[in-house]
Each structure stands twice: as C-alpha cells, then as structure tokens.
Amino acid sequence: MNISSLLQYLISGLTTGSTYGLAALGFTIIFNSTGIINFAQGEFVMLGGMFSVFFMKWFGLPIAWAVLLAALATMIAGALIERLAIRPVKGASPINLVIVTIGVSIFIRGLAMLVWGKDTYALPAFSGDKPIAVLGAAMMPQSLWVLGVSLAMLAALKAFFSHTIQGKAMLACSFDRKAASLMGIGVERMVLLSFMISALIGAVGGAILAPITLTSFDVGVLLGLKGFAACILGGLGNPFGAALGGLVLGVLESLGAGYLSSAYKDAFAFILLLALLFVRPQGLFGRKSVKRV
Amino acid sequence: MLTLKNVDVHYGRIQAAKRVSLHVDPGEIVALIGGNGAGKTTLLCTISGLIRPSTGSVTFAGADITRHSPERIVAQGLSHVPEGRLVFAPLSVADNLLLGSYSRHKFGQGQAIEADISAIYDMFPVLGERRNQPAGTLSGGEQQMLSIGRALMAKPRLLLLDEPSMGLAPNITRDIFRHVVSLRESLGLTVLLVEQNARSALKIADRGYVLETGRVILQGQAAELLANRDVQRAYLGRDLDA
C-alpha cells in the first residue's frame, strides 16, 4: 500500500462522496419538512446532469449557463412533483406518500428515456481535463469543482437555515407543524419550498458529477439509493450528518474498490449500511430517538 | 370582538362540539372551563383555524373567519397559545420569538420586530437571560412564558390561551396568571382562557363558560360561577377539600 494510490482513492472517494452527500441532503430536507423519504431524489440528480447536457446541445449554451438553467429546470420539476403528486394526497400516511414518490421516480425515468433515449452522455469538464499532480496522485480539475461546489452548497444551506427567517420557519415546520401554522407559517408553502431546494441540490450534484461519471436516463436509481444510504448512515434528519455520511460512503466505496475488488464497488455501500444499522440503528451522527411518556 | 354561533365540530363520526355559541367582548378576560375531553381545546383550535367546524360560524372583529387558514387568522390579530406550549425545542429562545413575528415579516419591519423582542424580554426577564439557549432546555414555566411571548410577537388583539397552568407548580401558575392580567392592562389585550384549573381561571376572568361533553351548560359572570353550587361541586371540588 503506497501513499499515492491511497491518496488517489481518497480523492476519487471524496468526489463521488460529495454527490452522495448532496443527494442525502436533498433527502434530509424533504424528510424534515414532510416526514417522508422522497425516492425521486435520485431523479433530480439525473435531471441535473441530463438537462445540462441537452441545454448545451439544443441551445448551444456555454456550460455555466446550461448548468444554471438545468438547476432551475429541475427546481421547477421539484415544484411540479409537490403540486401534482404530493399535495393532492396530503393527509395520507407517510408510507403511501413514499410509494407515490417511487411512482414519480419511475415516471420521470421513463419520460427521460423517451425524450433522451438510452444512450450515455458526457458533459465536458468545467475547466479542462488536465490532471493536477498531488503527491503522486492525479486529481482532475473537475474533482476540485465537485468538492468546492458541494462545500459552497453546504455553506449556503447552513446560512439559509440559521440566518434567514424563511429557513428558520422551515425548521420550525419540521419541529412542530401545528405550532408553525399558528405562527402564520404556511406549512404547504414550506413543503413546496423544501421540494424545490432538494431538487436544486440534487440537480447541482448531478451536473457537477456528470463530467466524471457520465450520465444517462437511469443514473438516478443508484445515486438515489446511495444518497439514501448516506443519509441513513449520517442519521436521518441531520443535514450535516447526511453530507458527512455521503463522504464516508464515497471514501469507503473507493477504498473497497481499490484494495478489494472493483466488481463489488456498488455493493460496499449497502453492506456498510447493513452493518451499521445492526450496530448503530440511529446512524453515525443521529441521536437515539427516545420517546418521553 | 369574537363571536361563535352554533358551532359544531366533528372528528370523523365523533362530535366534539355541539351547537356552541359564545362571545368575547373587547378588553375582557373570558374563561372557558370544563373537565377533560369537554371540547375546550377543540373550540380554541376551531377559532384559530386548525380545525374546520362542520356547521356554525366564527366571527372576529366583524369579519367571518370560519373558513380562513390559520395563517390568515394570525395575520388578522388573533394568536393562539397552544396546549402543551409547543415551543420549537431545538431553536433558541430568540429564534422562537422571531418566528412568532412571522406573520408580520412581509411588511419589512425588521427594526420594529427587534424592539418587540426586547419588549418581551422586559416582560419576562428570564427569557432575556436565556435568549441563546435552546427552548427545549427551559423549565415548564419558562416554556409557557416563551409560548405566550411568541404569540404576542404577532401583535394580537385577541389571545387564546390553552391550559397555561398545565403541569406547573401552583406558585408558577399564579405567576403566569398575573402576567395574563397585566397583559390586558399594558397592551389592552382581550383573552380567551381555557383551563381545567377552574378556580384560578375564574379568579382572573370577567366572565366564564362551562363546557361539558361539547356543550355550553352554564355561562355568566366569573364571580357568579365561582359561587355556583354545581360548578363548585363539579369543578372546584378538589380546591374545596384543600
């Protein structure tokens, strides 16, 4: 085991881990405001990548604009999902809503396949393909983008939740819906907002990862599941646990692929998740849920 | 100021309020007393828009608010301090108060809100001392003060108070009730108070209604109710023994 290959695995793990973390953040935000797991979160990631690719292709936009527009388009998709699929069945039990989101995810994936076909597409790297050498390991400039943008998103979210009244109101909804609506907070509007924010986060994650891992209509399945694993790993409901869970998952996956076998790369995430759930059901950073009676 | 006319409320097939009519005049403190499950909380939730009545009407300050959302009702000047306080436990005391002013935020009055928060700290100094502490770490009485302070941040004209004495020691209950009375004097607030602790509630109230299984069975001046034999037997019994 030498340092440079270890570093190489770490870099690639942190890069993919960031995307898992962003997907996990999306799960967490919707879970906090509605109490449901939105299994369409992976589709947001897919839409972010695919929209970027096609906005470049269709409109000849420069990549920055394509990514920005893709994020906006995905946000609108998120809002539509809440309006058309979640709000009409409000008051249903969480499990029914979760199944609605699974349906939505299959629908979006099908639609994406019809529109864009089954091919795999690549988004050009944001600032060239010339690797940067770091202590014998090669780092793609895109990895820096992924890490930087993820950190920026995390910081922006942190600021939103701790320094704006809308962010605090959203937290208030997650702590106590009834009290929140007595304060004049429109709980339905907050749920809509949470879907839009989650879609935005997912889409950005998808767009920045697309130059590295390529994208197609069905990348959302695995990214969504990994994001879900990350958010359970970090402790459901804790946004920073979720982001960290993503990084941990990404790094372990990459170490596993590097030192054991890359054939089982995708299995590591889930084996790890199972193992963790046996030992620490509340997740790494989650608090044990204690019910006071 | 507030009028309920023939209000029926159903939870599924269970009827929780039957033909309830009551009114609260400006500047009054009105107590709504009754045992467990009499429908007191249901009525308050109906007034603040959390529950829709099946028939009847709720009028506040001349406007029919029967079908309004809770958000609209708060903005119209009617705040509800819910049963069990329901403070946002992980958020700081200051944030809880800030969120209380949410309905006023659209008008862009950040400074006025800051001033109102310090006014709440003046009223309840203990909240000021703990402004940065998570609300969940406060004692029951402090949480009740916070819940009242939070409701006041919406600048209400009418305050609905649901069981403010629940789970509190008698001396703290007295303290809270003293605050309620002083709110009327200092802010000109009208109060509709729901209590199981009938004696304390009637002592500070002007008028009262007695609720039993969803019906108003008695109403009158608070002093009359306190002296009423039936009320004494049914709701003040424990206090008489003591």
Architecture blueprint of SSEs:
The complex is a heterodimer of chains A (293) and B (242).
Chain A: H1 3-34, H2 41-59, H3 63-86, H4 94-116, E1 132-134, E2 137-139, H5 141-163, H6 165-175, H7 177-182, H8 187-213, H9 219-234, H10 239-259, H11 265-279
Helix pairs in contact in A: 1-5, 1-6, 1-8, 1-9, 1-10, 2-3, 2-4, 2-8, 2-9, 3-8, 5-6, 5-8, 6-8, 9-10, 9-11, 10-11
Chain B: E1 2-11, E2 14-24, E3 29-33, H1 40-47, E4 55-60, E5 63-64, H2 70-75, E6 78-81, H3 93-100, H4 110-123, H5 125-129, H6 140-152, E7 158-162, H7 170-187, E8 190-195, H8 198-204, E9 207-212, E10 215-221, H9 222-227, H10 229-235, H11 237-241
Parallel strand pairs in B: 3-8, 3-9, 6-7, 7-8
Antiparallel strand pairs in B: 1-2, 1-4, 4-5, 9-10
What does this structure look like?
The complex is a heterodimer of chains A (293) and B (242). Chain A is mainly alpha-helical and 293 residues long. Chain A is built from eleven helices and two strands, in the order H-H-H-H-E-E-H-H-H-H-H-H-H. In chain A, strands 1-2 form a two-stranded antiparallel sheet. The radius of gyration of chain A is 19 Å and the shape is globular. In chain B, a hairpin with a 2-residue loop joins strand 9 (207-212) and strand 10. The longest helix of chain B is centred in the C-terminal third of the chain and has 18 residues, at 170-187. Chain B has 242 residues and is an alpha/beta fold. Classes of the chains: A mainly alpha (293), B alpha/beta (242).
